[in-house]
Specification:
The chain is an alpha/beta fold and about 325 residues long. The chain contains ten helices and eight strands.
């Protein structure tokens, strides 16, 4: 009897051990399958990512190139009532800021828009709301506000300097309300140290509104490359950056070295075009070389197309912009 019980217990023990071994083996398979699945997914993900990596290595894809191309309303200044040629007579094809987002998107596929302060009809919120709606409707964004009017941040006349600072603050408020990324304020004419102090004050105000301040080689003391660099470095803030303008240099001997020196500080580039010759070339300076300097020195921001000459040119604005877009696409 005792022998039979022992035999039964032994048999039950053997069955439990067998089940335990099967359990361990099954879980080993499950674990290995899980590990193999993870390895498969990781490997597959890497393979799927390869085309994107190759595309990135060879330059921006066609669909992304326009993300780095923008345009200022300065290009179409002749079609704005406030900046048209005084001898042109009544405008038959007038533009407004609220019409620009749709026009730029439909005609050029451009969604990065830079506004010129002279094109604002008002600073009232009701007017600004129409612009906000137009920008949102086209899925565009406002990259910068070029502030040009009667002000001087470098003057030693305290009352004039204070008025200038207050004026820029008003435009910073406008930029903030519209959801812009930055504003460009001219350094002015006068003392470099005064301009630095003015921009320090304005930069703090702009930073409180989540707006970046930009300093450009655009008139006055900023036209000297070393002076502009000194101003940016002396303000010493990641919120105040540079806005290199391809065209605003006296000659090519100054232009190319100055652009290279300014690139590490550049947030936005004014990719200015003057005019084209009958061969479709840009004789004033090597536009492609300017782009190459920017790219080779690490610029990853937006090229905002601008056209400026003091006299009428042979090409239409559309021809100029199409040419500039092609040049930028070839460079990035």
């Amino acid at each position: 009897m005792l022998g039979d019980v022992a035999s039964i217990n032994l048999r039950l023990f053997q069955i439990k051990v067998t089940h335990f071994i099967i359990f361990i083996q099954s879980n080993q398979v499950m674990i290995m399958n899980h590990i193999n699945r993870r390895c498969f997914l990781k490997t597959t993900a890497g393979l799927l990512a390869t085309p994107a990596l190759l595309s990135s290595a060879s330059g921006a894809s066609k669909s992304n190139e326009m993300d780095r191309i923008g345009m200022t309303t300065v290009v179409y200044r002749a079609r704005f009532e406030a900046t048209k040629d005084k001898n042109s007579g009544p405008l038959t094809n007038a533009l407004t800021l609220a019409e620009i987002p749709e026009f730029y998107a439909d005609r050029f596929k451009i969604h990065n828009i830079e506004f010129w302060s002279k094109h604002f009809e008002s600073q009232e919120k009701s007017y600004l709301d129409t612009i906000k709606d137009a920008v949102a409707k086209t899925n565009s964004k406002l990259t910068n506000l070029q502030i040009d009017s009667s002000y001087n941040l470098a003057t030693d006349k305290e009352s004039q300097r204070n008025q200038s600072i207050n004026l820029i603050k008003q435009w910073i408020d406008v930029a903030a309300y519209l959801g812009m990324s930055s504003v460009r304020a001219n350094c002015g004419s006068g003392k470099v140290e005064t301009a630095i102090q003015s921009l320090k004050l304005l930069n703090e105000y702009a930073k409180s509104k989540n707006i970046m301040m930009l300093a450009e080689n655009h008139g006055g003391i900023s036209m000297q490359p070393d002076t502009l660099m000194k101003i940016i470095q002396s303000v010493d803030s990641p919120n105040l950056r540079g806005l290199p303008d391809f065209g605003n240099y006296p000659n090519n001997e100054v232009r190319y070295p100055a652009l290279k020196a300014l690139m590490p500080y550049a947030h936005l580039i004014s990719a200015k075009v003057f005019e084209l010759n009958e061969k479709g070339q840009h004789p004033a300076y090597d536009y492609g070389k300017c782009l190459k300097i920017a790219e080779e020195n690490g610029f990853k921001g937006i090229y905002s197309i601008e056209q400026w000459t003091p006299k009428p040119i042979a090409q239409t604005q559309e021809e100029i912009v199409d040419w500039a877009i092609q040049q930028i696409q070839a460079a990035i």
